[in-house]
């Protein structure tokens, strides 16, 4: 009898020690073995409103355990069975079952969380449609397993510490319409196929991409295209004109882009912002830019452009800022000088010597000793109907041969 009572006593002692681990989230200590025991994850002891939430509970808790910094105390709310009330998690009815409840969206923007990876977290949330994690300290590479997220249409991991190559998995995610990977440390090249994806937003700026601008760049259906602050080289592809009905904002600034500004740039009739400042572009400004009727911000500062600033460009009605400083322009007409007085046109550090704050005569002369050529056949063409006043004032600098888009 005594030999039977002893195991029972030891069993009761063990239950007394371990049972609190099932009922709370504290770390328990085995009295005979001082090694801490991690709190077990047993969803069946909790009351989830949907089985889909029960399945992802261990995934969220596992991710919580690898978070190394949480200065705002966000993860303190990631407790219990009401996942839809966790800070940053949002639930909805999944497309395949409108009576079910699942985590459809995650918004960690500005949470300042730190974790060595997202692998094993977002790729295991099958109903995820939106993932925003701007301004955290997440790192690692982006796993190809995110391609399994069939509903994901917004993916924002900007302003983190991700590295490695471009996340190729996004090329197979046809539901994706918003891709923002800016302000990270991605390297290598951007696959040309990304410009064929059905994206509305493509933000790749402030990484370490090094490559020639893809020839098919104009195939993108994106409204907002940002490649700034990388090391893109080569000319602006003529194919950019194919995006005439879609592109609204284009940022190429602070790269290594060379060559002449393509005539086809004037086809971007819906563009409000175009910024190619601080590159190595050369040649005159094509008069086709006078067709950018909706343009508000236009920046070509810090290049090697020269010649006359086209009057048709200065006559555009929506211009709020035209930056042409630090180039080698030699002439500015009446309309352009009006914009200078209004503070709209910045043309400092050029070679227009009857204006203030220009380059020295010696510096300008030295520049013009270098051979530079651009195709003159398209420089003076205006691929849209020029307004009557442009006909009268701009004929000397831009021939008014009209070519319909």
Automatic annotation (TrEMBL):
Main location per the UniProt record: secreted
Keywords: Leucine-rich repeat, Repeat, Secreted, Signal
Gene3D superfamilies: Ribonuclease Inhibitor
Region (Disordered): 385-405
InterPro entries found in the cross-reference section: Leu-rich_rpt (IPR001611), LRR_dom_sf (IPR032675), LRR_extensin-like_regulator (IPR051582)
Pfam assignment, any one: LRR_1
Keyword Signal belongs to the record: yes
Keyword match Repeat: yes
Location in the cell: Secreted
One GO cellular component term noted in the UniProt record for this chain: extracellular region
Protein name: Uncharacterized protein
Species this protein is from: Rubus argutus
Organism placement in taxonomy: Eukaryota, Viridiplantae, Streptophyta, Embryophyta, Tracheophyta
């Amino acid at each position: 009898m005594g030999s039977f009572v002893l195991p029972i006593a030891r069993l009761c002692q063990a239950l007394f020690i371990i049972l609190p681990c099932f009922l709370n989230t504290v770390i328990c200590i085995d009295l005979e073995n001082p090694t801490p025991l991690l709190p077990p994850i047993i969803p069946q002891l909790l009351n989830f409103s949907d089985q889909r939430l029960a399945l992802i509970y261990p995934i969220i808790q596992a991710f919580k355990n690898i978070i190394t910094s949480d200065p705002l105390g966000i993860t303190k709310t990631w407790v219990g069975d009401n996942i839809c009330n966790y800070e940053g998690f949002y639930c909805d009815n999944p497309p395949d079952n409108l009576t079910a409840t699942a985590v459809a969206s995650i918004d960690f923007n500005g949470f300042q969380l730190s974790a060595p990876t997202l692998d094993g977290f977002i790729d295991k949330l099958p109903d995820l449609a939106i993932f925003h994690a701007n301004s955290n300290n997440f790192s690692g590479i982006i796993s190809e397993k995110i391609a399994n997220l069939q509903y994901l249409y917004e993916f924002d991991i900007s302003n983190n510490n991700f590295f490695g190559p471009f996340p190729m998995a996004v090329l197979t995610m046809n539901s994706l319409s918003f891709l923002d990977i800016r302000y990270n440390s991605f390297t290598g090249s951007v696959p040309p196929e990304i410009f064929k994806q059905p994206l509305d937003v493509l933000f790749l700026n402030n990484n370490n991409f090094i490559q020639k601008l893809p020839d098919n760049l104009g195939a993108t259906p994106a409204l907002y295209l940002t490649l700034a602050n990388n090391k893109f080289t080569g000319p602006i592809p003529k194919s950019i004109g194919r995006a005439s009905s879609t592109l609204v904002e284009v940022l190429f600034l602070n790269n290594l882009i060379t060559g002449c500004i393509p005539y086809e740039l004037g086809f971007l009739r819906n563009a409000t912002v175009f910024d190619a400042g601080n590159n190595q572009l050369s040649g005159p400004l094509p008069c086709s830019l006078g067709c950018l009727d909706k343009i508000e911000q236009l920046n070509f500062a810090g290049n090697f452009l020269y010649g006359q600033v086209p009057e048709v460009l200065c006559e555009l009605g929506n211009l709020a800022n035209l930056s042409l400083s630090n180039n080698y322009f030699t002439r500015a007409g009446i309309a352009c000088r009006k914009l200078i007085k209004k503070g709209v046109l910045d043309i400092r550090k050029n070679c227009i010597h009857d204006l203030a704050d220009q380059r020295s005569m010696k510096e300008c002369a030295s520049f013009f000793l270098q051979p530079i050529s651009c195709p003159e056949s398209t420089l003076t063409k205006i691929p849209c109907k020029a307004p009557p006043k442009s006909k009268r004032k701009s004929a000397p600098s831009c021939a008014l041969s009209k070519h319909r888009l």
